[in-house]
Amino acid sequence: MTASVGATAPPRSVRSGPLAGARRVTATVFAAQGVAVAAVSTTAPAVESHLGLSSLAMTALTIVLTLAAGAGSFAGLAAVRRSGPVAVMRAAVLTAAAALLSVAWAPGRLAASAAYVLFGLALGAIDVSVNTRAATVERHYGRSILSSFYAAWSAAGVAAALLTAGVSRLGWPVEYVLTAHAALVALLALTVRPHVLPPALSSSGDSPAAAQEVLGRRVWARLVPFGVVLLVAYVVDSTVSAWSTAYLHQTLAASLAAAPLAYAAYQAGTVTGRASADRMVRRVGPVAVVRGATLLAAAALAGLAAAPSWPYAVVAACCAGLGTAALTPLCVASAGRLRPGAPETVLARLNVFNYVGVLVGAGASGGLGATGHFRIAYAVPAVLALILVTTARFFQHGGKPPAVPAPGYVPPGATAPRSPRPLAGSTVTQLQV
Q1: Which CATH number belongs to the domain containing residue 289 in this structure?
Q2: Are 80 and 354 in contact (CB under 8 A)?
Q3: pLDDT digits (tens, 9 = 90+) for 91-130
Q4: Residue 417 falls inside a structural domain
Q5: Model confidence at 411: pLDDT above 60
């Protein structure tokens, strides 16, 4: 993080000032990550065929990618502390684009495996940096907005899945499909710009110096419930995202052009759910949202497991996305508030649960799919989703992020007070986060 010194900051407009710009950039990075993940997920059957891999080998490659993402998360934490989240976001998204190109044009299996590892490292760095930035922006807004960022992620995933389906229908080889995705991700990375935000301390008194604190046992104990919810949410997410294309193609006899539609439908469901999640949290509270979401997700996964044909599976995947939509942003927002002055430290630890969930979901469902039991792979997460109903009570304080507005910040609809002229030689410090 860097600091700049200047005169008293002028009043900021939420819609047009640096805060709004920071929110737009953060949403753009979420979108870039959504495109990149969708590109890998929806091209898995084509890459498998192109490289001559078995289903088990593709499952192993997915697991390696996830392990690399876990390592990238902690590497990203160190980079965020050194250079700030904005610089890390830009570099990691560009690296993800380069990795997609490397997968597309890899001359053999070894080179493709190395490209997948590079992609995983970039993905982990994006995770910790963009969620750190999102938590900071949400604290400045003083209300729940994190779901809107994840809605951008899902909307971009829908667009990327439809892009895969469209160009596959035109007969494009997988090399050109992944190149198109890589170009889109790179273009989004080029729009990332830093925005200077005023310092905003939480009501608990955390300061920027707290970023180097070691998390105590009490914080770890409070983090576990959110981690469990995140773990199960990513078991569900990875089972649908990583293998729904293969499920439709191999089990339900969908064509390569139709197979990505389940992924697109799943992300469309998450877009709808996340677009309304912040409003629902403010209206009925996070406990009710978590309970309703888990029940819907369980029912949708059961429907996905029992789907008689691929159109039914597409509808069930959409409902599954609608059910799981709010879980991840609520976990991230609630965990980030455990240490408002050092969100990157908490979120890097929370990502451990994220990647364990991806490993369990992608690995188990891929293994079952390789033996022809994809339906069981969707039935088991339905049971896990029901367990999350018991964890909803831990979200009771998750609706309103505590924040102390920074000097010069004007909430929406308020009138900016006149600022006294600063004394000679006085300064106001601003942080680049």
Answers
A1: 1.20.1250.20
A2: no
A3: 999 999 999 999 999 998 999 999 999 999 999 999 999 9
A4: no
A5: no
User: Total domain count for the chain?
Assistant: 1
On whether residue 426 sits in a domain, the answer given is no
The pLDDT of residue 141 is 85
How far is it, in rounded angstroms, from Cα 260 to Cα 248? 8
Q: Please check whether residue 228 is in contact with residue 393, taking contact to mean a CB–CB distance below 8 angstroms.
A: no
In a domain, 329, yes or no: yes
**Angstrom distance (rounded) from CA 60 to CA 33:** 22
Of the given ranges (276-285, 385-394, 422-431), which has the lowest mean pLDDT?
Answer: 422-431
Per-residue pLDDT tens digits for 310-329: 999 999 999 999 998 888 88
pLDDT at 68: 93
Note the pTM of the prediction, 2 decimals.
0.69
Residue 415 lies in a domain: no
Q: What are phi and psi of 254, to 5 degrees?
A: -80, 150
CA neighbor of 198 nearest in space, from 6, 400, 390: 6
Single-letter amino acid code for the residue at 158: V
Place of tokens 């106001």: 428
Residue 195 phi/psi, 5-degree rounding, is -130, 125
Structural domain span for residue 164: 2-408
- In the structure encoding, which two tokens stand for residue 194, read together? 């830093």
348, 76 Cβ separation under 8 angstroms: yes
Judged by phi (left if over 0) then psi (alpha if -120 to 50, else beta), residue 254 lies in beta
Higher pLDDT, 220 or 264: 264
Q: What is the 3-state secondary structure (H, E, C) of the chain?
A: CEEEEECCCCCECCCCCHHHHHHHHHHHHHHHHHHHHHHHHHCHHHHHHHHCCCHHHHHHHHHHHHHHHHHHHHHHHHHHHHHCHHHHHHHHHHHHHHHHHHHHCCCCHHHHHHHHHHHHHHHHHHHHHHHHHHHHHHHHHCCCCHHHHHHHHHHHHHHHHHHHHHHHHCCCCHHHHHHHHHHHHHHHHCCCCCCCECCCCCCCCCCHHHHHCCCCHHHHHHHHHHHHHHHHHHHHHHHHHHHHHHHHHHCCCCCCCCCCHHHHHHHHHHHHHHHHHHHHHHHHCHHHHHHHHHHHHHHHHHHHHCCCCHHHHHHHHHHHHHHHCCHHHHHHHHHHCCCCCCHHHHHHHHHHHHHHHHHHHHHHHHHHHHCCCHHHHHHHHHHHHHHHHHHHHHHCCCCCCCCCCCCCECCCCCCCCCCCCCCCCCCEEEEEC
